[in-house]
């Protein structure tokens, strides 16, 4: 076990972790941030995407020992809440971009990573980004997802 200090959604969190634990498990089980979903658990679906120091990262394949002390981690809980939705969250609702919703936190965190880097992407850039970050949705098809990002980027 080792001590790890992380900045999670703007708050310093001091944890005792198994260095071989995956970040998704630390977030969900130790910090109770269950918005981060684990679908495949193998880095193939993007459901577990979070942002670490500005970089979209798949938490299910990131061992906590590889996360630097004082790394800034943003999860879906850090974006908005029911009373004050982030523009991406609002756009997801408006465009019906979630059905079962399991992929939604990962897609939204991935989209945030894109808009932080490129605030005015083209539709093609949005599609390419999701492909590159392996975000997969089994329910909606990808048109509403891209529509939502384009709307949030307005
Ligand atoms: Fe992490 Fe699928 S749960 S990529
Ligand atoms: Fe069900 Fe995307 S809304 S997997």
Give the topology, please.
Elements: E1 2-8, E2 11-17, H1 23-30, E3 49-52, E4 55-58, E5 72-74, H2 87-94, H3 104-117, H4 123-132, H5 143-152
Parallel strand pairs: 1-5
Antiparallel strand pairs: 1-2, 3-4, 3-5
Helix pairs in contact: 2-5
Bound molecules: FE2/S2 (inorganic) cluster (2 copies).
Residues 98-103, 137-140 line the site of one FE2/S2 (inorganic) cluster.
Report on this structure.
The protein is α+β, with helices and mostly antiparallel strands and 154 residues long. It folds into two domains: 76 residues, Beta-grasp domain (Ubiquitin-like (UB roll)), CATH 3.10.20; 66 residues, [2Fe-2S]-binding domain (DNA polymerase, domain 1, Orthogonal Bundle), CATH 1.10.150.120. It has five helices and five strands. It has a five-stranded mixed β-sheet, sandwiched between helices. A hairpin with a 2-residue loop joins strand 3 and strand 4. The model has no long low-confidence stretch (mean pLDDT 97). It binds FE2/S2 (inorganic) cluster (FES) (2 copies). One FE2/S2 (inorganic) cluster binds next to loops.
List descriptors.
single chain, 154 residues, alpha+beta, Ubiquitin-like (UB roll), DNA polymerase, domain 1, 2 domains, 5-stranded mixed sheet, 5 helices, 5 strands, 16% strand, binds FE2/S2 (inorganic) cluster
Summarize, please.
The chain is of the alpha+beta class and 154 residues long. The chain has helices at residues 23-30, 87-94, 104-117, 123-132, 143-152, and strands spanning 2-8, 11-17, 49-52, 55-58, 72-74. A five-stranded mixed β-sheet has the order 2-1-5-3-4, sandwiched between helices.
């Amino acid at each position: 076990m080792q001590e790890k200090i992380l900045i999670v959604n703007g708050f310093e969190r001091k944890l005792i972790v198994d260095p071989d634990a995956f970040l998704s498990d630390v977030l969900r089980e130790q910090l109770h941030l269950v918005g981060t979903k684990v679908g495949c658990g193998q880095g193939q679906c993007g459901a577990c995407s979070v942002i670490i120091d500005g970089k979209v990262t798949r938490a299910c394949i990131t061992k906590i020992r590889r996360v630097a002390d004082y790394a800034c981690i943003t999860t879906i809980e850090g974006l908005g809440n029911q009373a004050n939705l982030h523009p991406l969250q609002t756009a997801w609702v408006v465009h019906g971009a979630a059905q079962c919703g399991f992929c939604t936190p990962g897609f939204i965190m991935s989209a945030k990573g894109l808009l932080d880097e490129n605030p005015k992407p083209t539709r093609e850039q949005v599609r390419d980004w999701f492909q590159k970050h392996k975000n997969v949705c089994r329910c909606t098809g990808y048109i509403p997802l891209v529509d939502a990002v384009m709307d949030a980027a307005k």
